[in-house]
Amino acid sequence: MTKQTIITLPGDGIGPEVTSVAVAVLKRACKASGVEIETIAQPFGGTGYDLNGTPVTDETLELCKQHRFVLLGAVGGPKWDELSADKRPEAALLKLRKELGVYANLRPIKVYPELAAASTVKEEVIAGTDILIYRELTGGIYFGKPRESGEVDDDPYSLDTMRYSRSEVQRLARKAFEAARLRDGRVCSVDKANVLESSRLWRKSVIEVSEEYPDVELTHMLVDNCAMQLIRDPKQFDVMVTGNLFGDILSDEAAMLTGSIGMLPSASLGDGNGLYEPVHGSAPDIAGEGIANPLAAVASAALLCRHSLNLPNAADAIENAIKTVLKNGVRTADLYTGETGTVKAGTKEVEKALLDAIGEAVAA
Ligand code: NAD
After folding, report:
1. What percent of the residues of the chain are helix, what percent strand, and what percent coil, each to the nearest 5?
2. Do residues 209 and 285 share a domain?
3. What is the position in ligand 1's atom list of the atom closest to the CA of 333?
4. Are residues 198 and 315 both part of a single domain?
5. Ligand 1 site, residue 300, Cβ cutoff 6 A
6. pLDDT exceeding 70 applies to what percent of the chain?
7. pTM of this prediction?
8. Is 191 assigned a catalytic role?
């Protein structure tokens, strides 16, 4: 059996609770694909600060770079809110993303039929939605220079710069086209090319890449229209590719289609490296109670199998296990509405249900 090492950074609050479920499920699913997963856990975030006086040590960063694939829980909590910016748990997250060079942020937006009623958008509009958003993560207006504040004629001003280079756009676009090949074969590039110079370059650069992928259909959409179309008819999208600012806003809007933050996984990829984490935070209000929903962390482990380990069967097994658990009516408190045929379950009970579901799939 091949061996594969993964670094885990469970972090704070519910981070360790959901990460331990993700690791158990990952190990079981990969074993069935002939790969033995070995994990090295490192303190990170507030927990890291308590132990080492810094939210992330150089040793941890080195380990992450050496082993390339990282499964993260969540960081933060009121205990560390008063620390200076460089000591806060979030500083560890930004440093890690930068050190790993993960420029492509993936957010799958999948509506599970069993949970469609939990969304604020009408069930018939969202049922069947399955979108994969590729957001540029290390460029654009969040990083562009100059970035300054000043005053002219007694009138204060501030300035941010939206800058993109062709290579920045194209390395992300290639990832989106590759992903579309494994899905429905469609990429929608979102920009504001009717107004912004940087968007005109964005569009031109994406079109150039599309010539390498004649089997993938490329469309373009202006970001304002996209915000509307996501609510009007989300099923029209397959893969979406967009810049940092637009992706930040659109991915949060799209997340609301699914109804619960406890369900959303994410992956951040840079050539060769992969950082996988649930979208939710450390949920200090429920930490330690054993009631956290582990499905976003588990779905992040499925993304790890698909995008870094090249184990699509293991990814499918994990995603099918999530579907089975939901179909069987097993719900953590955040999803439980008292609906007939459902039961309220703790984090560990969900873990058992997931492992059973994978076990059955392997045996079949
Ligand atoms: P949060 O996502 O932690 O929690 C928001 C609400 O959703 C809470 O009521 C929480 O109980 C619930 N919730 C979240 N995840 C859940 C899960 N898996 N199962 C059940 N319920 C869940 O956001 P917040 O309260 O704004 O932030 C709490 C801390 O987390 C803060 O310190 C914040 O900075 C940090 N944070 C970290 C990350 C990260 O690590 N990537 C992301 C967001 C927030």
Report:
1. 45, 25, 30
2. no
3. 20
4. no
5. no
6. 99
7. 0.89
8. no
